[in-house]
Model the fold of this input.
Amino acid sequence: MKPTYTILIVDDNEADRELYKSLLEGRKSEGENEYLFYEAETATEAWALFSDIKPDCVLLDYKLPDFSGEHVVEGFSEQTSILPVIMLTGYGDEALAVNVIKKGVQDYIPKKLVTRESLRSKVVVTIERSIFLKRKASLNKYISNLQWNLDHKGSAMLELMASMNHEINASLMSIRNQVELLEKTLLTPRQREMIKDIHKANENLVSVMCEVLDTSRCTLA
Done:
């Protein structure tokens, strides 16, 4: 079952609005999209509806009573960077519509060329492209957050390891000092061999800790 998509029709001409709805609703073949329509006659109404319903597609007339379609698009872009808008232009407005497309509008149709097939195909493409762009934006945001977390946690991990390295080295230095004090006392040959083993183990442990810290820095960099 196909989902139902919301279509916002922004046009001050009621006959044009009814035409667009009839072209999208009539004679559907199996599997075609279902649409729920909202209508606005002015830019002010369009901005309010766009914010409330977050339409899947907007059919926008270039010339409205209060503002131009270009101004309407600018208002939409303040709410979202993804503009699922198809501009509908009258004769001679195509050059202006192309300029609006550069600002993020998905497509445009000269009103004289609107047909059932052209309108349906452009609406479907606009909806699918907007869905793709939203998913892409969501994925990019997830990757960005993941990278930030990796960088942040990596930095925190290095700080933790450096702190641990400092504490361990301090403990090892304390052991070394104590062993050196023992060396100044009377010791049996066996005890002196044990002291040498402690020194060697101490030095090996310091070396291992330095290697671990250096490797972690390279891995997390």
Q: What stands out?
A: The CA atoms of residues 3 and 34 lie 7 Å apart. The helical segments are 14-25, 43-53, 69-77, 94-101, 116-183, 189-220.
